[in-house]
Amino acid sequence: MWFKVKKPVMAPPPEEVVRRHSLRHLAEVFGVSEASLSLDARFGQELKANPASDFKANQFDIVVGDIKDVADKRLLKEMAQGKLVIQTVGDYCEHMVRCSSINPEEVVRVLRLPATE
Fold this sequence. Notes:
Layout: H1 15-30, H2 59-70, H3 73-80, H4 89-102, H5 104-111
Helix pairs in contact: 1-4, 4-5
């Protein structure tokens, strides 16, 4: 007899934990101190990436991958249509918070959140 085993549904992590780890993750990706990151810092202006390469992802590649990995189909469609644009550190943090209720497992994986905090 074939049956499907349901995975337990993960509770979304607290918003403050997601925000803090989003900042920490961006600081690691861009090689800056967490304290130096402003929510108004813009990707491409205050936060610059190394030159792109066919062999190694640069900082923007990592951030775009994070954004797409945690999004659902609706958010991906909004991004493709230009309705959802993430330009600042604050936009990135809010996107992670929004997606933590939609796709908590992926947010935990991307931000490397501890099992319990």
